[in-house]
Amino acid sequence: xxxxxxxxxxxxxxxxxxxxxxxxxxxxxxxxxxxxxxxxxxxxxxxxxxxxxxxxxxxxxxxxxxxxxxxxxxxxxxxxxxxxxxxxxxxxxxxxxxxxxxxxxxxxxxxxxxxxxxxxxxxxxxxxxxxxxxxxxxxxxxxxxxxxxxxxxxxxxxxxxxxxxxxxxxxxxxxxxxxxxxxxxxxxxxxxxxxxxxxxxxxxxxxxxxxxxxxxxxxxxxxxxxxxxxxxxxxxxxxxxxxxxxxxxxxxxxxxxxxxxxxxxxxxxxxxxxxxxxxxxxxxxxxxxxxxxxxxxxxxxxxxxxxxxxxxxxxxxxxxxxxxxxxxxxxxxxxxxxxxxxxxxxxxxxxxxxxxxxxxxxxxxxxxx
Length: 369
What we know:
The chain has 369 residues and is of the alpha/beta class.
């Protein structure tokens, strides 16, 4: 009963922000004395602080409390093909610092892991946070990641299959660590604070030169038996990766760009910009890419019948230049095409989703929520 009372009080306090004993008692249905006992204990444990009364308050002011979001922190890391993104957040999920680092696409697994560690440590140290205050770390990466946090299959990162990503990350701060597929974490981020906050069934597609997809059903992440749910992009017949390479790596045209070869996402950004400026050749290339993307997306849409399709990753910054033709092709392929929106966070969504996963662990295993 003591644990139940503590959970109820802590949940209510986190929702309220700053609250009095009377208010918390009304919300939880607990007596004022019980709430006061719970809060005094949580204050002693460092999870709650008493807020001083406002100046000028006459008489005996009511005792007010707030949850200490700075009592600990979590770290979310996106380990991608060409970059590392690390974010540190307090226990309310407020991101207080972010660190980015480049990494070679051909980097071996030890080199990539070392770069991720440096970025995570630099992020925490740069924010002035003690490393001992990191309560959990979570890492997102391309490929299939099993429930233990081990990469069971990666076809994009050299030597990445078999890496115990959670085990390695746990040693960075000496705390619990988790790992998951990048598109899955991006889907979590969108549902938490982004474009999919009010949707229940969601398909999220991470678009770029390394595509992927995540699925939420009933607001919960659907990983599947082995963690491979949504990995339709691995089917060569779908052709997502080839289409992304064609969009970003082939020359746009002598007139527009001096016949120079473009590179990956940077090249794709220039194609999108030219299409948005009215260039017909670039618009045709975007349309071909959108049609190819719609083929794989429609398979997911026809299977899940989601409320929302979210397009994220680097290419999502193109906005309606990409989403417009994608919506048109989906309408041709699907029995009932869902609403299609761009990600709120773009290429920051994976690290933010990793923050959310780490917070889930802390709330469940440390705070008992």
